[in-house]
Amino acid sequence: MKHIVVAGAGAWGIALAIHASRTGAAVTLQARSPQKRLPSGAMPRLPEFPLPETVKLSDVVPTVADLYLVAVPTQALASFLPHLPQTRAPVVLCCKGVEQNTLHLPLQILDNLRPDLHGMVLSGPNFAHEIAAGLPAATVIAGSNIQVTESLTHTLTTDSFRFYGSDDPLSVQLGGAAKNVIAIAAGAAIGAGMGENARAALITRGIAEIGRLTSAMGGQTATLAGLSGIGDLMLTCTGTSSRNFRTGHALGQGATLKEALDIAGGVAEGVYTSSALLTLAHQHQVDAPIVDVVSRLLEGRISLRDARDLLLRRPARMENEASGGRKREIF
To answer: Is residue 195 domain-shared with residue 287, that is, in the same domain?
Structure first.
């Protein structure tokens, strides 16, 4: 790769640009306000990490590149895609979530609006500030073209950041979207003083919910045992750097949703994803009690105590029993 474009100068986009520069490629970071660069050479959303000299800032997306990494929020993806040029280079979507109005995952948004582009998705347990610092990490790139996927994993892997490939983009996207909702529940449990046992139960039953929905939508539940499933879920539900966890934690301590979002800072994608994910679950006749109570809690229809009681007072059943009385293994 001679030229990598990173679109979006949020914390994640900045971290990806810094990482991309470590591969030896020239990097362009597209930002709406490139003039807001700090005297230190850093950008406001990740002020402790100055951009390397090999990273150039631009307010437009370059028309020629070997790879495009799109790091804009899922809810803004549709409005951004017209700005991408016609290109044969891979376009990797580096966002997680479900579009509220359409219930589409990121690759579905791309396929509907820009079928001319070759899309892939990146997802994994990755905090932006740790990637920027060069701390050890791993992630997944998923797409339908195995040759391109394998090529990108080799190109983007460095001594500190390891890339794996996957041919199951549906499951990778569902894992990345749903973990944000479960993280809000985990944060609320800790914020309300419910304890570590409660958090562990939410993580475990959360992966079961994600597994049921993944299976119903035609994905491979084995993918959820990997970085984009359990890996991302564990990080987001336990790491205080997670905006979704911080949002839930503030709610658990009695904050309003607006106050919680202010405390969390930035975009808490799970807030926007919860209702869309619940609608998907209903459409596919999937039992998703954690997503259900989080959605209702965020909408102000139930209290935190109500959410707790609704989950704990559900009828007892076998752990590997799916809705409808069937038994199956999640993995």
So the answer is: yes
